[in-house]
Amino acid sequence: MRRPQLISRALDDLHAIAQDARAAPKRGERIEKRLAAIQRELQSMDKRLRKMSKRIDRNVEATRSVTKAVRSVGAGVERMDSGIDAVAASTQPIEPKLGMLHASVHPLAGGLSQLRSEVERLANQLERNGGGGT
Questions:
Q1: CB of 126 within 8 A of CB of 132?
Q2: What is the DSSP letter of 133?
Q3: DSSP letters of 63-105?
Q4: Model confidence over 89-127: pLDDT tens digits?
Q5: What backbone torsions phi and psi does residue 130 show, to the nearest 5 degrees?
Q6: From residue 33, how far is each of 7, 25, 28, 29, 44 by CA, in Å?
Q7: Residue 131 has pLDDT above 80, yes or no
Q8: What is the pLDDT of residues 38-85, one digit of tens each?
Q9: Which of 93, 70, 74 is nearest to 82 (CA)?
């Protein structure tokens, strides 16, 4: 009885192999379709990565330009700062001189006021005496 069981098992195995062989083309087609879909997705991702790489390169270049401009502005500010310091240092001696000038001119204002009053008095006196007019 062993032989019929062995033959039965062998036939069952052959049947399973036959079923797998018949299903293999369908599985192969599904695998090929999945591989084709994966290939298309990879191509799409590659395209997007190239675009992103170009954008990143442009942003890096723009950042370099901005950095260069900022450094240039910084250098200009440093020159202005040192220039302001130089102007402040050069005008420092002027302040005491302005004080001295004010002290000299201020008394003149009072003298001008007196002179004006004197001129008005003399003009009035001339008019009274008949010397003013045509």
A1: yes
A2: -
A3: HHHHHHHHHHHHHHHHHHHHHHHHHHHHHTTHHHHHHHHHHHH
A4: 777 778 788 788 878 877 777 777 888 888 888 988 888
A5: 85, 15
A6: 39, 12, 9, 6, 16
A7: no
A8: 999 999 999 999 999 999 999 999 988 888 888 888 888 888 878 777
A9: 74
The angle at the Cα of 50, spanning 47 to 55, to the nearest 5 degrees, equals: 130
Sequence-distant (6+) residues with CB within 8 A of 132 are 123, 126
In whole angstroms, what is the distance from residue 75 CA to residue 69 CA?
A: 10
Which amino acid, residue 115? L
Residue 82 CA: distances (Å) to CA of 91, 113, 118, 124: 14, 46, 54, 61
What is the distance of C-alpha 77 from the center of its chain?
17
Given the structure tokens 């200009």, which residue do they identify?
76
The two most distant CA atoms of the chain are separated, in Å, by 172
Give the position of tokens 């009053």. 117
